[in-house]
Amino acid sequence: MHMNITADKTGAAHSATATAIDVRDLRKTFRGPHGATVTAVDGIDLTIGAGEVVAFLGPNGAGKTTTIDMILGLTTPASGTIRVFDRTPEQAAREGRVAAVMQSGGLLPDFTVEETVRIIAATFGATDEIQDVMGRADIAGIAGRKVSKCSGGEQQRLKFALALLPDPDLIVLDEPTAGMDVESRRAFWSTMRADAGQGRTVLFATHYLEEADDFADRIVMVAGGRVVADGTTAEIRAQASGRVVSAVLTAEEIERVRTAVPEITDIDIRGGRAFFASGDSDTVARYLFTATDAHDVEIAAQNLEDAFVALTHPSEDKEILR
Ligand SMILES: Nc1ncnc2c1ncn2[C@@H]1O[C@H](COP(=O)(O)OP(=O)(O)OP(=O)(O)O)[C@@H](O)[C@H]1O
């Protein structure tokens, strides 16, 4: 799998393609309550290269799970196309090139961890891999534990072990750490980091910015069924790299600052303060101090969290000056 030429389950050699996932103008609607139409995915375009580790980042209801289900071939799009390693999602899954770790469910509570791995290994003809994947997913120490007695984090690591069994080229994880405490989340990702991202393509959905930032090479932000930002983690950071100068001042003065300082890119008013976003915080601060009665002036770096909120909740909790 970590080579350019791999053998599929029939033993035939094939060249690894450079593109793992190619999604064009993907759309999906559901029938909601009272017959209303819910647009879950509203024209997503996405190309993921082989070997990329991509975070699909967005708030609840953004359309992440619906998109992932279509990439896995579990549901069909209303329109648009999906290619996975230049195949249909169903073909790619059948060939064992794709494995998934889903949010919940899928495990039988009465089996032990090792029994679960053995059963799935048998279906893939991968019984030689059992000890190896249990080690890689860090579940060897709980091999004899019943699934029903495993914590949420342990169950997710077990699912990760199962996903490794077919030695897939692509692993898709849908919010694999949902509901875990911070420590379990860290443990899960450190296991993932040690194993994935070594030539394998990884697509994971999350609404934790920190996870996307820590683990992904690239962040695709989705909101309302659309891609709202797409770039390397560094690029997304750069988008948010300006500074914000905030101060308490009157509405008339805010208007005056806006006109007088063209370097200002955005103004929000929250909690009685005005927040001036700009690539030149010195000029903004100088103007506030010298030409207005602004007080309690603060200068802060805009962080990724701010960028995320701004991109995914454009009107939430803030009043934009017009
Ligand atoms: N089977 C369904 N029937 C009706 N509406 C659905 C169905 N599945 C999803 N939706 C709706 O589609 C939208 C997108 O949901 P989706 O689960 O894809 O979002 P998400 O980004 O994965 O959110 P979460 O982080 O909560 O899992 C939501 O408004 C959701 O209520």
Architecture overview:
It is a peripheral membrane protein. This is ABC-2 type transport system ATP-binding protein. Keywords: Antibiotic resistance, ATP-binding, Nucleotide-binding, Transport. There is one protein chain. The protein is an alpha/beta fold and 322 residues long. The chain folds into 2 domains: 5-238, P-loop containing nucleotide triphosphate hydrolases (Rossmann fold), CATH 3.40.50.300; 242-301, THUMP domain-like (Alpha-Beta Plaits), CATH 3.30.70.1510. The protein has helices spanning 64-71, 89-94, 113-124, 130-136, 152-164, 182-195, 209-215, 233-239, 251-260, 281-291, 304-312, and strands at residues 5-7, 13-15, 19-31, 37-49, 53-57, 79-84, 98-101, 170-174, 201-206, 218-223, 226-232, 243-248, 264-270, 273-278, 295-301, 319-320. Helix 5 (152-164) runs parallel beside helix 6. The longest helix has 14 residues, at 182-195. Residues 1-17 and 314-322 have low confidence and may be disordered. Residues 30, 32, 38, 40, 58, 60-66, 207 line the site of adenosine-5'-triphosphate.
